[in-house]
Amino acid sequence: MPESTLAAGTELALRLGAFLSVFALMAAWEWAAPARARRLSRTARWSANLGLVAFNSVLLRVLLPTSAIALAAFAQASGWGLLNQAALPGWAAVLPAVLLLDLAIYFQHVLFHAVPVLARLHAVHHADPDFDLTTGIRFHPLEMLLSALIKFAAVVALGAPVLAVLVFEVLLNGTAMFNHANVALPAWLEPWVRRVLVTPDMHRIHHSVIEAERNSNYGFCLSLWDRLLGTYTPAPRGELDIGLPAWRDPSAVATFTGVLGMPFSGKSP
Q: Which of 21, 38, 143, 212 lies deepest, with the highest CB count within 10 Å?
């Protein structure tokens, strides 16, 4: 299948199919073996979190008339980007492109913690009073818009192949739901999986109310970057409490209108 045809015809179906499959799998796992007790009703939280997902999807389709995959095809046709300049065969560029895109998302995540105005947007994600698969897709619309633009720039600058971008998009969505899921891997399996992937127990530490723990474990897919760049925290200091200390009111953090207004409330994350 030509890459331009992939970009135009099947991207949405492939991504949506993967999203729904992982969502259903994680939801079933959470229902069967939750790792933590819920603070709030799932119905209330999920209506807010999934409402954000639906709103963000429509907003990005309206405001951004292109996609990362379409931009990858355009960059390839134009010879733009690092990997296109290196003249690697498409298949040989897929793995380095996926790795570098994952690294770019790591740095983007660090940026959204380090810059105060961006941290206000990212607080919507961290203020979720519970931690489950919908936390992984709970983001303010402005953060989603900025994230899409950063991703577009990274795709073009790298000259990432279309296949690499598709693989990365599916991995990013899938691992975001996996590592935010209210589940725990078996104790014998956790350390082995964590050598490669960000696990729920690893990423849950990033949602700690303790700032030092929150400023660690930034990775979404690969655990490699936190280990290499000195931001890895293997375990919480004590019993893990998640959320943001300044945001505990359910009317603000667990309703659709409440989370939309959070960045403009004047509160610091």
A: 143
